[in-house]
Amino acid sequence: MMRLTRARRVCLASAALAAAFVLFHGQLAAAVVTRGDDALRAGDVADAIRFYDRATQIDPHSIVAADRLAFQLALRHDRAGARLAVTVAGRALATGGPDPGLFADRAFAELQLRRWRDAETDFARAGALAHDARYEHFAGRMALRTSDLRAARRFERLALADAPGFAPARALLRSLR
Question: I need a surface site. Which of 15, 61, 122, 130 has the fewest CB within 10 A?
Fold first, then answer.
């Protein structure tokens, strides 16, 4: 049996690690998201954000990691966090496809940035994908911010189609008559 030189062993180990990363990066990202969740439960939001960001770097296609990161950034309630949340959600939507949670995260961040039309569009997309009356109602509220009463009525009707007993949509629609 031939002995491997140190350089060959290092090359072999590097190749094995690279192959493992390619094969298991999704699982690694999921584990890092779990660490972020643990940090969040412990009350350490900054650490949670770092873990979620690391997970998006490990697996840029991880919708879960991007959703958690964008949501936590939007919850910071500052303009820098909101802008970053919009970027994170937009990047994930471009690479991972439509996801109602990411549209809603981006809409909440746009709300903080006072981008009413963008928030309306994203809440409407989230509502249409998830058939969620809350998001359609939020889209209606954003339409009101831009004085688009017709769109507000349409969104409230969509909300009531998805959840006929949804009181906020019922009340807003009644006030718009």
Answer: 15
